[in-house]
Amino acid sequence: MPYSKRICEKAENIIKERELRAEQDLERRKAEAERMIPEIAEINARIAQTSAELTKVILQRGKNYKENFERIKERNLQGQQMIKELLKSHNIPEDYLKPKYFCGICSDTGYDGVKRCKCYNELLSRLAVEELNSEANMPDCDFEHFSLEYYKGKTDDNGMDCYRKMSENLSVCKEYAELFSLDSPSLLFIGMTGLGKTHLSLAIAKEVAKKGFSAAYGSLLNYLRVIENEHFGRGKDPDSDTMQTLIDSDLLVLDDLGSEFRSGFYESTLYNIINSRMNLGRPTIISTNLSPAELQKNYNDRMISRIFGGFVTIMFVGEDIRMIKNLKG
Length: 329
Ligand SMILES: Nc1ncnc2c1ncn2[C@@H]1O[C@H](COP(=O)(O)OP(=O)(O)OP(=O)(O)O)[C@@H](O)[C@H]1O
Ligand SMILES: [Mg+2]
Ligand SMILES: [Zn+2]
Fold this sequence. Notes:
By secondary structure, the protein is α/β, with parallel strands linked by helices. It folds into two domains: about 20-105, no CATH class; about 135-329, P-loop containing nucleotide triphosphate hydrolases (Rossmann fold). The protein contains twelve helices and seven strands. The protein starts with a helix and ends with a helix. Adenosine-5'-triphosphate binds near residues 197 and 321.
């Protein structure tokens, strides 16, 4: 299992809390219903009594076992039916006294038969991604803090209106986040330094995470370092498998392709991440300072064909906003 002990314990606790919350909620609604409709309390008391009788009958397995069993069962069912009708006549939804689980598959036990439920696996993956993300936190990188003012009145070297182009990019990114699904395309953000590539990719990732998807974001260089350390047994956590977490996340943002120094290990790791995600059909967002020609020069053909063949390119234009902001103080 590619998760650290800390993450497993955290997940286990969350699952237990969900289960407990479902039970407590049900108890609360039961008490509320009994308070509003005292007949329900009486019926519940009778059902509790017959349930005790039923246990006795089952344990003793005496004479007339079958008849007794059926008789008691029938009485319980009748009681339940009466409660249903009482709820209905008080305009309370019929399922008011049914447990409401976070996960309908495992009833919040975390297990679907003997194997871990889908909800448990999703939780583990989300926790692992959140832990990774916490190292790359940039609180203001969201759509609200993204302003188009910086691009006004500027044209790039090809005479392109920066404001118009970046308005379009912003709409594309917002729509991408809004409509995000596992079938969303991969994106490649290309542009000079300080134009908002990191800002917008994080904005997308945060929005996607809010919808409940796991969205990992971080600088490629950092990820490669962590993966390298884990690979050579120098990881912070002996059980964590960052590479697998990145491959498994619903959305992955690899920021700043090209800033890593070249090594065979980095190159094959990067290729594996991108290729595995493509094979699984999972969307990735890559941002880079390198022009298409520079990318071609710096990476091998297998990698380039995957990036140019499988990613939608978005060009960033304008003037270095990092510098403009710094000058303003
Ligand atoms: N349109 C914008 N509105 C407000 N702040 C912005 C905008 N674009 C960028 N910024 C801010 O300017 C700084 C630089 O932007 P960002 O890090 O996104 O640039 P980048 O394109 O990723 O640059 P690099 O290629 O150097 O990584 C960040 O603090 C970011 O929040
Ligand atoms: Mg950046
Ligand atoms: Zn479940």
